[in-house]
Amino acid sequence: MASPKNKKSKMRKRQRVGQLEKAILASVQACPECGGMKQAHHVCPNCGMYKGRKVLSVTAK
């Protein structure tokens, strides 16, 4: 397996991670059922709904 020849600087690591976070934040949208924020194509963490049906049972805090 190949090994890195030089150390990656903090800036290079942080730039890579920052690009990944942008992609995740861009895919956040409002849930049609409760209006809470959720990721696209994921179950809503607030109400437990996905594509109009109940998938998770969410307890109130």
Structural class by sheet pairing and helices: alpha+beta
Q: Order of strands across the widest beta sheet?
A: 1-2
| Number of discrete helical segments | 1
Characterize the largest beta sheet: strand count, sense, and whether it forms a barrel: 2 strands, antiparallel
User: What is the terminal separation in angstroms?
Assistant: 48 Å
Question: What is the total domain count?
Answer: 1
Multimeric state of these chains? single chain
String of helices and strands? HEEEE
Strand content: 15-25%
Task: Provide a compact summary of the structure.
The protein has one helix spanning 10-26; strands at 28-30, 37-39, 49-50, 53-54. It is α+β, with helices and mostly antiparallel strands and 61 residues long.
Topology:
Layout: H1 10-26, E1 28-30, E2 37-39, E3 49-50, E4 53-54
Antiparallel strand pairs: 1-2, 3-4
Question: Can you offer a commentary on this structure?
Answer:
The protein is an alpha+beta fold and about 60 residues long. It has one domain. A two-stranded antiparallel ribbon has the order 1-2.
